[in-house]
TrEMBL record:
Signal sequence coordinates: none
Domain HTH marR-type: 1-138
SUPFAM superfamilies: Winged helix' DNA-binding domain (SSF46785)
Protein name according to UniProt: HTH-type transcriptional regulator MhqR
Record GO biological process: response to stress
InterPro entries registered for this protein in UniProt: HTH_MarR-typ (IPR000835), MarR/SlyA-like (IPR039422), Tscrpt_reg_MarR-type_CS (IPR023187), WH-like_DNA-bd_sf (IPR036388), WH_DNA-bd_sf (IPR036390)
Keyword vocabulary terms for this entry: DNA-binding, Transcription, Transcription regulation
Source lineage: Bacteria, Bacillati, Bacillota, Bacilli, Bacillales
One Gene Ontology MF term: DNA-binding transcription factor activity
Amino acid sequence: MAENLSLKAFVITMKASKALEELTKKDIKNHGMRASDFAILEALYHKGRQTIREISESVLISTGSITYVIDKLEKKELLIRTNCPDDRRAVYLEITAKGKQMMDEIFPKHQQVIEEMFQGISESDKATVIEVLKKVGHQAAEKE
């Protein structure tokens, strides 16, 4: 029986994804945060003010669950909510100075952990992984 490379690629991708996820969750936890908290703050930290819907789509947290996480981050004064003056249904989120200061401290350390995950992988191989996984992701999305 011939080796099924698609199946093998799928299994290897899933195993690698799980290992990367576990390592990043552990790192985030070492900073006293949960992955969902970090994901929201990181999105606001790098992209600036966004609507709750935009955040929900970018960090892959359902709109039902995200409200709970946002409430906790708001109580800790790490982000603020503001109503959109043009659309009463839209609510903007923005990282506070306190949240930015915390991310200024945490994010470079987190980025270093990610750099270490890819240590020894050439820039060319990283570019190939990015290109291939984008193609796979787009094909999978088309089948939904």
